[in-house]
């Protein structure tokens, strides 16, 4: 199986199925109320107080199913657990509605025949949806798409103990054991030893990986800090075996995998529904921006062609999500060089390579407009860390801690660093270090509202800047 898709698919599938069930529960509750009313009263015209009762039921079922744990991964794996819990939750909701009706002395306003028909049809809908979801989930598991793929860091005795516990679960696949201290064993508890943590970082770029479990409580704080520094650039959830509070770790929560208690150290940003909302935002707003800008882009293309010989578009390899190379589009703003310098010198003030129209395009950032096609193609986002040339990436990754952590998300046309003035030439490491700090802040604090704020600021302060030349 080709696993080059480096995003975590297993976790996303669980979140997606749980999210769809939440929406489905509310939809079934509301839809069956109207269908039952139509069947019993032979009309779709429903009094307002019926609709208020339906809205209350929808709110209650959403809360009761959550309290019952119906959307947790362990519950999703059992059809019987799902059915028992949904029957209990819906019966409790219906009982509350009936109790409220009698307590307020308004049962005469409602048709009890309709109410019990609604109860039965909704219950049937819940059960049917659960069975379908369980069958779909079983099919995905047989295809290996819902098995949690885990990499283990730590090859000593603690790592072996953790490995035995993880391997006991049929829902977990441990893809390898990694440790900077070499192991003499090719196999550890039946799982291949795959070298130092740097190999794990490289693996995360090639294969699907869901979790990184770190079993190193028997190591020094310095060893742990070294490993965490390497893993910070990987867009995969990293979790530490429990009982590590004596170390200064960035704990973000806790959970259990295969019965093993784990502390969350790094979490993959924009996962699950966050990734879906981010992708939807990019496609909708990207298309909304592209359509009115197409005439302007056509005029710019004509001016570029008339101004100097060479292609209209400049294509350059840059690093995208998870340090994978992507091809980024820009309007050509420099004189065409058939043999460009592989070191990619940054543009400087009064740079002789820049054409007349190119100077205006770079100053106004209009040369970036073709990157809307990158957004629609899914290789970039509207908002995110700006992508840098491959040569620049490799240079700064060696001198700035955490630099490659920028690639835990897709690069963007604009970003938090740009609207705060950190754009254009980075002629000193300090300027790039500040840009990286703003990029990492954006990744750790991402939200749709944060994106919209950056887009709004870009419209006012992001296009023109004294450092853009």
TrEMBL record:
GO molecular function, one term: undecaprenyl-phosphate glucose phosphotransferase activity
UniProt subcellular location: Membrane
Bacterial sugar transferase domain boundaries: 280-461
EC id: 2.7.8.31
Transmembrane segments: 12-37, 49-71, 83-104, 116-135, 284-304
First-tier enzyme category under EC: transferase
Protein name: Undecaprenyl-phosphate glucose phosphotransferase
